[in-house]
Amino acid sequence: MTAASPVPGRLLGIDHGLKVIGLAVSDPTGLLARPLQLLHRTSKQADFAVINTILTEQDAAAVIVGLPESPPHITAHTQADTVRLWASRLATATPVPVYLWNERYSSQDAEDLLTEAGRPRPERIDAVAAAVILQSFLDALRAGAPWPDPVSPADESAP
User: Fold this and answer.
1) Is the dihedral of CA 11, 100, 33, 12 positive or negative?
2) pLDDT tens, position by position, for the chain (159 residues)?
3) Residue 5, class by beta-carbon neighbours within 10 Å (0-12 exposed, 13-18 middle, 19+ buried)?
């Protein structure tokens, strides 16, 4: 993807969680993101199969995965490391490019949006958080930000 083609069609947004994955989708013009659904995780293979089905159903051109930022002084394994590995495995399993995008405050922003709209907070806000992540990405593209580098597929043959 290049600055010349800001949004190539619908994008699928993902808020990665250990038990639940929040999914969101953009409109074809890349103007708005909306929550789509929750995916209760079962196995990597099953989760990726569901995501691929959704990519086909939504005719999505790319996947945007929220990446939690870790403070620079933290050297232990972080949630960001887990998400990077998962995204590289997803990139291996999907026919479309996968990109990482800063998800800072997405859950809090999702709760704030629901409160401002006067809507009750659902039991899980992961799909709303995915929409916040995806909307942030779309807004940045419209403001002239370049596309990030796509995630490199995992080399599952490596030890």
Assistant:
1) positive
2) 544 447 788 999 999 999 999 999 999 999 999 999 999 999 999 999 999 999 999 999 999 999 988 666 666 778 889 999 999 999 999 999 999 999 875 556 656 655 566 665 555 668 888 999 999 999 999 999 999 999 999 886 554
3) exposed
pTM metric for this prediction = 0.84
Domains of the chain and any CATH numbers: 10-142 (3.30.420.140)
Three-state SS for 129?
Answer: helix
What is the SS3 assignment for 39?
A: strand
Query: What is the Cα–Cα distance from 103 to 132, expressed in whole angstroms?
Result: 8
Closest listed residue to residue 153, CA positions, set 82, 101, 93, 100: 93
Pairing of strands 20-26, 33-40: antiparallel
